[in-house]
């Protein structure tokens, strides 16, 4: 039953992508209210899925890799719904929907939705640690998307090949300001997530802790270089993409390692 909610959510994000694709093909791209509504509906069905799955499990739905990917997709959609209108990045939806669709589509078609029998009661600190870390991943994903938008606009300006989409991109200064704010918010949330992991009352897998700290150091280095102006905005945008790619790779590895850690 819960998977049907997720399938409907995925179709909503797909509809937003189709609408954007048709506009680009007609060479008259116009950010439409339809795309925003479609993403909003997709987010609502994501939330319904997580609620139903969490109610059935009796805990936060983060018990396997499938649920982790869906929670990450939900976090990305959530941050977009909160941040996109605030920074007037209406075009961000055209970049957010494909990423969410990719994550959810992969989760749906992959045989990773394995139910684990959990006999111990839910650990509120552990659930807070995991959920807060994934919300931070969602913020880093939006920083990555803003970085892609920055590089796209910068390239069009450099090559003097301006497409219709160019006129709907925010100015480079606004995009870079958004990237900086997203990096700081993501870093703060991720710090809270890491610190809360030490209050779970149980030892965390060493590889998981080392990977989390390595990712934290990467984003700390990006922010420090940005603060000291050691890196040009273009380099920061590129590092946002690299950082989120590393986060996704670590997400798979951390989850896999955590599952092995609990095997008898």
Please give a handful of descriptors for the protein shown.
264 residues; flat; disordered C terminus
Give me the secondary-structure topology.
Layout: H1 2-25, H2 33-57, H3 65-86, H4 92-109, H5 124-159, H6 172-196, H7 206-227, H8 233-261
Helix pairs in contact: 1-2, 1-4, 2-3, 3-4, 3-5, 5-6, 5-8, 6-7, 7-8
Task: Summarize the structure in words.
This protein is mostly helical and 264 residues long. 76% of the residues lie in helices and 0% in strands. It is built from eight helices and no strands. It has helices at 2-25, 33-57, 65-86, 92-109, 124-159, 172-196, 206-227, 233-261. The two termini are 31 Å apart. The model is unreliable at 257-264 (pLDDT under 50).
């Amino acid at each position: 039953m819960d998977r049907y909610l997720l399938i409907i959510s995925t179709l909503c994000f797909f509809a937003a992508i189709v609408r954007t694709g048709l506009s680009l093909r007609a060479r008259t791209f116009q950010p439409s209210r339809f795309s925003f509504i479609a993403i909003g509906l997709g987010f609502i069905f994501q939330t319904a899925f997580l609620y139903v799955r969490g109610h059935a499990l009796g805990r936060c739905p983060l018990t396997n890799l499938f649920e982790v990917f869906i929670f990450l997709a939900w976090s990305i959609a959530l941050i977009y719904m909160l941040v996109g209108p605030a920074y007037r990045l209406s075009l961000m939806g055209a970049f957010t929907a494909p990423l969410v669709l990719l994550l959810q589509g992969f989760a749906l078609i992959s045989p990773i939705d394995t139910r684990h029998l959990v006999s111990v009661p839910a650990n509120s600190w552990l659930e807070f640690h995991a959920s807060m870390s994934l919300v931070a991943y969602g913020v880093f994903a939006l920083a990555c998307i803003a970085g892609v938008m920055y590089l796209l606009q910068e390239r069009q300006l450099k090559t003097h090949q301006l497409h219709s989409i160019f006129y709907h991109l925010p100015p480079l200064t606004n995009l870079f300001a958004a990237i900086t704010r997203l990096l700081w918010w993501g870093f703060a949330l991720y710090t809270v997530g890491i610190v809360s992991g030490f209050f779970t009352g149980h030892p965390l897998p060493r590889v998981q802790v080392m990977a989390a700290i390595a990712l934290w150091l990467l984003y700390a280095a990006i922010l420090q270089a940005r603060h000291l102006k050691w890196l040009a905005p273009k380099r920061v945008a590129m590092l946002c993409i690299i950082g989120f790619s590393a986060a996704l790779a670590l997400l798979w590895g951390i989850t896999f390692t955590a599952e092995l850690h609990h095997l008898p």
